[in-house]
Each structure stands twice: as C-alpha cells, then as structure tokens.
Amino acid sequence: LPDIRSTCSEEGWAMQKVYIALSFQEAHVHAESAVPEHMGSSGRWNDGITQQVCRESCEQRARAAELLEQIPKRFVELGKSEMLARKLLHTQRESLAELREQGFLTASEASHMEHQVLEAQRHIVNAPKDSWVPRHEVDSDSRLFLGPS
User: Fold this and answer.
1) Nearby residues of 93 by Cβ (< 8 Å), 6 or more positions away
2) Residue 79: how many CB atoms within 10 A of its CB?
3) Cα-only R_g, the chain
4) CB-based contacts of 117: which residues, under 8 Å, 6+ apart?
5) Residue 145: which pLDDT band, with cuts at 50, 70 and 90?
6) Is 57 in contact with 31 (CB distance < 8 Å)?
7) Considering only CA atoms, which of 77, 83, 97, 91 is closest in space to residue 141?
8) CB-based contact 89:120 (threshold 8 Å)
9) How far is CA 135 from CA 11, 13, 48, 82, 139, in A?
10) pLDDT confidence band for 1 (50 / 70 / 90)
11) Which is nearest to 145 in space by CA: 5, 20, 8, 3?
C-alpha cells in the first residue's frame, strides 16, 4: 500500500488531481469517438445529438485542461509519464499473451517475461515520485500548496 504520508502530502494531492484530470480527458476522447458508432445510421436527429455530445465533451476536456494549467508542470509531466509507462507495460503484457497463443513463445518464456513486466509495473507504482525528477525540482516546488479543493 502507498505510504499514507505521500497520499496526503501536497505533492500527493497534486498527483491525484493530475491522474484524475488526465483520465477524465482520455475518457471524453473515447466517448467522442464512440458516440457516432452507437448512434447508428446518420440522420438529422442523430447528427444533432452527436454534435451536442461532442460539444459538451470538448467543454469538459477544456475544464480539465484548465485544472492541469493550475498544477506545476513537473507534476503534470510526471503524471503523463507514469500513465504512459503503465499503458505501455499493459500493452506489452497483452502482446506476450498473443505471442504465446500464436506459438512464438513457450508458456515458460511468456511467464518469465510477464513476471518482468509485472515487476516493472510494481516499481512504477511503488517508486517515490521524487525519484523520477531531479532533487532541485522537488525542492523548488515544495513550497506550493495544492491541497484538496
């Protein structure tokens, strides 16, 4: 479990806001692309609803972007990097399963490689955030208060 002090710290709150805002933006991008697929054949009524949903989604993404602008860039960059690393490792696990199913890897080889991916995922989750950035950047942001709002 993450250390409770890191979760309640100023940096912890900032990172939580970053994860939420970035995930929110990604969810809206996904929704915008999924709405036309679910609306079926085009027609005036469907086109109007699709446009309204996309307009509202765009507004919500803009609000999330405004929140991200209020957070120091180093936290936003760290959040993006961590989320990308997690996504890449998840994709790698999926690829290993496919390679195993196709017979390119034995069960033992796939298991060994998956173990390495899981270790990397655990490292990302458990590594102190200040280990990802140079110490002078951590010190310069330590005076910021980004508590819950």
Assistant:
1) 114, 117, 118
2) 23
3) 20
4) 89, 92, 93, 96
5) very low
6) yes
7) 77
8) yes
9) 14, 19, 52, 18, 6
10) very low
11) 8
Residue type for position 84? L
Q: What is the pLDDT of residues 19-78, one digit of tens each?
A: 999 999 999 998 888 877 776 655 555 677 788 888 999 999 999 999 999 999 999 999
Burial class (CB in 10 A: 0-12, 13-18, 19+), 75: buried
pTM of the shown model:
0.68
131 band by pLDDT with thresholds 50, 70 and 90: confident
First and final C-alpha spacing in the chain: 24
